Amino acid sequence: MSADSKDKAGFIGRLFKMRHADESFWEEKPEVVEEAKAPAPAPQENIAPEPAPEPAPEPPAPAVEIAPAPIGPETSWEPPAPAIEIVPEPVAPPPPPPEPVLAPVVAEAAPKESWWTRLRQGLARSSSSIAQGVADIFTKKKLSADMLEDLEDVLVRSDLGVAAATRIAALVGKGRYDKQIAPEEVRTILADEVERVLAPVARPLEIDSSKKPFVILVVGVNGSGKTTTIGKLCAKFSAEGKTLMLAAGDTFRAAAIEQLRIWGGRMNVPVIARETGADAAGLAFDAIEAAKAQNVDVLLMDTAGRLQNRTELMAELEKIIRVMKKVDAEAPHAVLLVLDATVGQNALSQVEIFGKVAGVTGLVMTKLDGTARGGILVAIADKFQLPVHFIGVGEQADDLEPFTAREFARAIAGFED
Ligand SMILES: Nc1nc2c(ncn2[C@@H]2O[C@H](COP(=O)(O)OP(=O)(O)O)[C@@H](O)[C@H]2O)c(=O)[nH]1
Ligand SMILES: [Mg+2]
After folding, report:
1. Against a cut of 0.70, is the pTM above it?
2. What structural domains does the chain harbor?
3. How far is the CA of 394 from the centre of ligand 1 (A)?
4. Position in ligand 1 atom list of the atom nearest CA 221
5. d(CA 225, ligand 2 centre) in Å
6. pLDDT tens digits, residue range 126-162?
């Protein structure tokens, strides 16, 4: 495994040569009224309690902006009578706190650590506490039940979960009571078991090309890295020659819409957006229709994420999915939950809640280059067996890697290769 040798220079080069789309290309499609497209009224469904306190009063006739890519592959489609102007912010709810819009693109010349190095550094907090704990426990003494209990404690503190910790301690103990065991051997047993748990969940995100568009809904709590991951996925799919469209479904914050537009501009991918406060489900409907009309391969939809208000979140996500199914009964074809690796245990409840609400089909774990608490992936794999498609190891477009069990397991056990 020579991950370090992986050469991404050509790909990075291509990406960074892209420029933001000219703002003058943002076009407004006036009077696309959601109701006009909705199927005939279904009284029963309408009466069904819609627990959603809508985020903001819906403007009477929400305009849909469609920003075609300036040099996009599908330039033939034009919205009717486009007025070339930037939609001004509507009179909005109280201004949101200033947010980081987007990490600046780093200069091409700046050398970057390999993703494997960044993963190892990101997991250093977990791996060094495991390695230190193991070294402290497995001294020259003969193996005892107390030592195995201490090992379990170390592993639980590193977020691997009680089930995995118990199994690993049992594996270490097997046939070795009253014998000496070297810390390195313990870490090898640990790495092997972690790899065994993670291998079945390390699965690529497969795009079924018979579904056009293949709709990917991206969910997760605020700040987990959804929008950034969408940008990175755009880079990946574009490099594979797929045509793309983005939907700015985090309609709560102007900055979130802008952030997605910037990614779209960088990647030359059209972005379907409405103004702040608009109905995200209506946007989802328009986006799938637009993607169908343009014969786009993959539609990626961003969403707002606020776990602190579960009822509202639940209602909105459910509504988005319900409305998507009106255009395409199989949509969304994938629901990606983006998890921030620095949150630790809380990720478990995020998987549980978003799994119930949105039918999550796969995970992306971001910020594994930071001070990650990556052990939680083992606990998540044990409990949910959901595929882990990608890991985020930085803020740039190419900082998304397929999840591989062996590298992750070796890194968390503190091995350098
Ligand atoms: N270091 C690091 N930062 C990331 C990663 N993914 C996202 N971020 C940063 O996390 C912050 C929140 O990301 P964003 O995509 O806006 O999250 P969202 O609210 O879920 O859409 C931004 O500053 C991103 O640049 C990652 O893999 N590594
Ligand atoms: Mg976002």
Report:
1. yes
2. 20-35+56-73+204-404 (3.40.50.300), 117-201 (1.20.120.140)
3. 8
4. 20
5. 7
6. 899 999 999 999 988 899 999 999 999 999 999 999 9
